[in-house]
């Protein structure tokens, strides 16, 4: 990286969706009684929306009272960090809508009962890639150079 | 893991802080104009609070208008996922309070200008560890057994 280049790169919408499809774990931020809450979730991409499973609880109560949510997934390697954020509207899938779940690679990591499917319809999808400058990773003796 | 054990383990407060201290990357959820927003951040633990640096922008505007925030950091390995969430109140550090930053292992990964220090005073710290059951990772021929 030259000093003249910014270390922050904005991803195109297509790159964001590629990244979303390549991952299955992220975090959901939602409103609950005027507070912001944040939980890890497994998700899958269904066309241009995200779908996740959940049991009765805060997530479902929260999105039923205020559908405004934000979702983030990221990947950090030694040289770069990539983060994609989806802001949108969440709602529980009802009746036959739920069958879409069976067609998705939605594989909960943990075998706890999860009865409800929730879809996030995006309002805004943004992504950034950061070239990492972590000099302390290179604080090693470099020999006689 | 026996079938009788829950795959979800609640971490003690001490385990949560150990985990927070062992990491430096997480995500901040905050309110902005009635919406919930979510961004990746680098952070450090300062005694019983979190500190991060930020430039002027949405994060700073958001927490100055509504200090209610949630923070999450996690680590996923093949066998388990650990996630710690801090709910609390964020405020910009002013004047001499900012000098604490120089004592912290707060190492932004990206060399973009960051002028403000923000502290998150926890209201609630919770953590969970999930024993992962990802059978598709084990969908391999097992020989003649």
Q: Could you characterize what this model shows?
A:
The structure is a homodimer of 145-residue chains. Chain A has 145 residues and is mainly beta. Chain A has a single domain, classed as Roll (Pnp Oxidase, Chain A). The first copy, chain A, contains 2 helices and 8 strands. Chain A has helices spanning 13-22, 58-65, and strands at 8-10, 25-32, 35-42, 44-46, 49-54, 68-76, 80-92, 116-131. In chain A, strands 1, 2, 3, 4, 5, 6, 7 and 8 form an 8-stranded antiparallel sheet that branches. The interface between A and B is large, with 37 and 37 residues.
Secondary structure elements and pairings:
Two copies of one chain form a homodimer.
Chain A lengths: L7 E3 L2 H10 L2 E8 L2 E8 L1 E3 L2 E6 L3 H8 L2 E9 L3 E13 L23 E16 L14
